[in-house]
Write a structure and sequence with these properties.
Number of strands: 10
Radius of gyration: 16 Å
Largest sheet: 8 strands, mixed
Order of helices and strands: EHEHEHEHHEEEHEHEHEHH
Strand order of the largest sheet: 3-2-1-4-5-8-9-10
Helix content: 25-40%
Distance between the termini: 36 Å
Oligomer: single chain
Number of helices: 10
Structural class: alpha/beta
Bound molecules: NADP nicotinamide-adenine-dinucleotide phosphate
Length: 214
């Protein structure tokens, strides 16, 4: 598969490297065509890795991952271009964390709306699937970092798109994938971030995850 990754941070590089290990071709996008982190990432990931602008990465990908800062995601996706994203599956991993008033961050959107929904509304032809945003990026691609069975949540309006994303998650090693329904469920998965951040402070480690017991 050809995958476009929007984002040069630790999430973009971790997911990009995992997808390359799994045999996919990945282009990492940034505001700049020659972002240093993207160039370094491509160099260390071999011939299947390439880099460019957000627009280059979105045009390249049969599927696209949003791994940009949540408060900048709409701007990054606008730069990626509606025509390059049209009809594609977009896995939205971003959280709308606002660090402008220091720590802990607040949610830039919550309760009656979410970043996932804002993206879906702004790009109606895109099949937005919110996934993986409730855990650290190392765990996203290696669930065995935390022992035992634990959960990854997904939501989105398009059932076929979610089926495709479930296959990708399985290829990362996920067994317990909880499909929460349509994209409005992104409110809940984004609003667990204050709890996640608090737990991270308590445990002094990002190596934990949620498990829903019934
Ligand atoms: N860190 C984790 O383990 C983790 C876990 C779950 C979810 N998340 C979420 O995943 C996303 C990525 O996190 P991260 O830590 O890898 O990286 P990040 O530092 O949150 O975001 C980096 C990306 O955001 C882009 N960006 C920043 N400001 C921008 C602006 N004004 N306009 C357009 N693009 C802008 C950067 O573009 P340039 O490349 O041009 O600099 C870069 O590609 C975030 O939404 C985060 O909340 C992170």
């Amino acid at each position: 598969m050809k995958v476009g990754i929007l984002g040069t941070g630790m999430v973009g590089s971790t997911l990009g490297s995992k997808l390359i290990q799994l045999g996919h071709d990945v282009r990492m996008g940034s505001r700049l065509a020659n972002n240093e982190k993207a160039m370094e990432w491509a160099k260390s990931n071999g011939p299947r890795a390439s880099y460019g602008t957000f627009s280059d990465a979105a045009a390249f990908g049969e599927i696209v991952l949003n791994c940009t800062a949540g408060t900048a995601s709409l701007a990054a996706l606008t730069a990626a271009g509606a025509k390059n994203l049209k009809g594609k599956v977009l896995i939205d991993v971003a959280n709308p964390l606002d660090f402008s008033k220091g720590m802990p961050p607040t949610l830039a959107v919550c309760n009656t709306d979410s970043l996932g929904e804002q993206i879906q509304r702004t790009f109606p032809s895109v099949k937005v699937v919110k996934a993986l945003n409730t855990m650290n990026c190392k765990l996203m691609v290696d669930p065995n970092i935390v022992s035992g069975e634990h959960d990854v949540f997904i939501c989105g309006n398009d059932a076929q798109a979610k089926d495709g994303v479930k296959e990708i998650l399985k290829s990362f090693g996920w067994n317990s994938i909880i499909d929460l329904g349509d994209i409005t469920a992104a409110r809940g998965t984004e609003m667990v971030l204050p709890l996640w951040l608090r737990l991270m402070g308590l445990f002094q480690s990002p190596n934990f995850n949620f498990k829903i017991m019934r």
